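chain below, 203 aa
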Amino acid sequence: MVALLAFLASSGSSAASSGTAAAPAAGHCGPAAAARLASSPEARVYSWHGAVFGCAFAEGHQFRLGSAARSIREARVSPVAVAGVNAAYGLSNFGVDTIRASVVVRRLTDGTQLKELAATRAVGAESFESVGSVVVRPDGAVAWIGSLHSIIGHRSVTEVHEASSAGDRVLDSGLGIDSTSLRVRGDTLSWVNSGVTRHATLY
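prediction:
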């Protein structure tokens, strides 16, 4: 009996270690060994076997958000921010000669998508769009820095956005913006443009 129990335990352990991108069982908010991408006291987003999942600790239900790496079949998730039970993240869709990016806000208690907004307002043929940084508030208000580079038009655009109940607005634009510099403290946003820190209110 002891030998049988030991065998079953080792078999279960092997199956878990060779798992696929399927979400772990509900109630655990993801495996402890998963790579944490962002978290709050209420929720976390993590990568597991090449996929990205989010969950709220109280409910324990995992929701697949996308791929952890570049993929033609599934949009890539990066970067990620979590506040309260809400996650905000960049979502990049890869085509043959185009990358389209958006910012998604999702509630991790039930998986409801609250917002999806274009990374920039720019349009360009054979263009590559990206989200450099994103922040979110517990009520779902979100801000991000998006960039677009067009091969044909030799055009580059970087924009700072914020979106709340009032809608999406551009706070700043210019090639001097550090796309990874966005921060939030309370309702105050900050970012760096040409070496100078700028501020705005996240409404």
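The first helix runs from residue 2 to 17. The mean pLDDT is 86.
thats it, cya
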